[in-house]
Amino acid sequence: MMNRTLSRKLLGSMCGISNPRLSFAQSAVNTVQREKELIKSRELEKDEPRPLYMDFQATTPMDPRVLDAMLPYQVNYYGNPHSRTHAYGWESESAMEKARKQVADLIGADPREIVFTSGATESNNMSIKGVARFYKAKKKHIVTTQTEHKCVLDSCRIMEAEGFDVTYLPVKNNGLIDLKQLEETIRPDTSLVSIMTVNNEIGVKQPIKEIGNSYYQHHSLNVYLRIFISSISIMFLISGHLCRSKNVFFHTDAAQAVGKIPINVNDWKVDLMSISGHKLYGPKGIGALYLRRRPRIRIEPLQSGGGQERGLRSGTVPTPLAVGLGAACEIAQQELEYDHKHVTVLANRLVQKIMAAIPDVVLNGDPDQRYPGCVNLSFAYVEGESLLMALKDVALSSGSACTSASLEPSYVLRAIGTDEDLAHSSIRFGIGRFTTEDEVDYTVEKCVQQVKRLREMSPLWEMVQEGIDIKSIKWTQH
Amino acid sequence: PFIMALAAAARRCASCAIFSRSLSVPELRSACSYHKKVVDHYENPRNVGSLDKNDKNVGTGLVGAPACGDVMKLQIQVDENGKIVDARFKTFGCGSAIASSSLATEWVKGKSIDEALKIKNTEIAKELSLPPVKLHCSMLAEDAIKAALADYRLKQKDDKETLAEARN
């Protein structure tokens, strides 16, 4: 035995020297190691402190209380909520229904109006595609804005390919839409209007209550008028064009707004609303769609299967995630006012300190009609990506071209009419429930320091100091 | 036993070779991770600043556009023998743009005008290991060098013309 192992070891070492196939393998192993080093260089070093998290619009850490609520459903009460025949299913189902009620309470809805989905992207897809396809016999027009989230814009593009007409409303320079323009754009064959509540890039809050209420007047009046007229028309056989109702459905993507500002779907007269779990300190991979029951919205389901969620979204509802979403909504409801005050104080501190310390900083978006936790600042004469690289121990995001795959700056900034060079210089600071004053102070200090350093390196700043007007120069295109 | 050991070793080699071949995936780096050299040039940029642009021996090249997010200003100082003795840059752009222009000033120093014209963007990109999405930064750096040299030549030609007129 000893001889065999010894001879094997000797052979192994001899193979290392002489066998060409093994040396090829060795070089391949070396490249693998080098590639692993490259991968490692993208992750944090061993003792490197983690960066400060100031990107609460991208995602939020899960509240520990939400984790506490979810954990039993991962390991103990793990049944499928749609299993009707045993206790595992029953307890899972009751947890799911409890979560549904918690979500509904946050937005002022009935639990029967909530459908669990995999996230706000799926909810947006279901709303736009579902409503448009269901009503496509008579209604072929969809209205949305230019500053919507990519999933809404992409769904609208798919609808255009399916033969629908889509109007992308422009926004004013402060990011808000013009209500009069919206009124004019609505046609008799409009089925859906989709406008997001709080923008994820600039934090602007749209006047959803005004839109909903102006619509609902058309909506409810014409629903009853329609019923009345149609009942008469059945008797007199009057053709359909008499009962032309502006039966327009109103969808809002409230992913960034739920749990942060008070929402009541009945006050706002909203028909569909998308909710995202991981934006309100809940788990990732879950969201919800609110679908009004009175008057009833019908949608064509996107996902077919066993008929779960009233046939609108088949598939097993992930009980632990749903419980997490419910817990996050309940916590958000209890702490909404406190969180709002906390975030407002910190955001004002951030903006005022930065603006006092360095000149030529622009706040993108309306200063009043906004959610304070999303601060988008443009630092003139400094490029966004270089500033992000300088602030490497703060996790931030930018609307600059270099950070997107193409060389185009963010479409939201372009839609609000920002100059192209300012669009390249924008940084988004996200503040949330867990941000502390020290974190904000540190960020401000580093930001001011790095902006000053980068401005020293910038030819545009130099030209401005010398009094040259940058807009008058003819630049060489490349 | 000897044959068995050999067979076992051969099997190990073969599996190792196949295993590592499947693991050798080429392009792992994405646009957001920076090479150490780019970070180094960015944190310790060489030759930031300005030279006197009215000086006869200084050529200034200003390329790019703020609308594209990249503006580079490269200045070179040339002595009587046609050799570049000093270079300075200022850039409005991302980390790769700053690194490309910083490297350009480093390379251009000590070269003659004709040698500096030969610097290619591919060399800059290779030195900094720029990913494909950032190659335009190195192209802009090459353009900046050429623009600075062209500006210097223009100044020298103007000087010679004024001298010739004065003589006449």
UniProtKB/TrEMBL annotation, chain A:
Keywords: Iron, Iron-sulfur, Metal-binding, Pyridoxal phosphate, Transferase. One of its GO terms (cellular component) is nucleus. Its cofactor is pyridoxal 5'-phosphate. InterPro entries: Aminotrans_V_dom, Aminotrans_V_PyrdxlP_BS, Cys_deSase_IscS, Cysteine_dSase, PyrdxlP-dep_Trfase, PyrdxlP-dep_Trfase_major, PyrdxlP-dep_Trfase_small. Pfam families: Aminotran_5. GO terms for molecular function: cysteine desulfurase activity; iron-sulfur cluster binding; metal ion binding; pyridoxal phosphate binding. Residues 53-218, 241-442 form the Aminotransferase class V domain. PANTHER family: CYSTEINE DESULFURASE (PTHR11601:SF34), CYSTEINE DESULFURYLASE FAMILY MEMBER (PTHR11601). Belongs to the class-V pyridoxal-phosphate-dependent aminotransferase family. NifS/IscS subfamily. This is cysteine desulfurase. It comes from Cyprinus carpio carpio.
TrEMBL record, chain B:
InterPro entries: ISCU (IPR011339), NIF_FeS_clus_asmbl_NifU_N (IPR002871). Residues 34-157 form the NIF system FeS cluster assembly NifU N-terminal domain. It holds the Pfam family NifU_N. GO terms for biological process: iron-sulfur cluster assembly. Gene3D superfamilies: 3.90.1010.10. One of its GO terms (cellular component) is cytoplasm. One of its GO terms (molecular function) is iron-sulfur cluster binding. NCBIfam families: iscU. PANTHER family: IRON-SULFUR CLUSTER ASSEMBLY ENZYME NIFU HOMOLOG. Belongs to the NifU family. This is Iron-sulfur cluster assembly enzyme. It comes from Cyprinus carpio (Common carp).
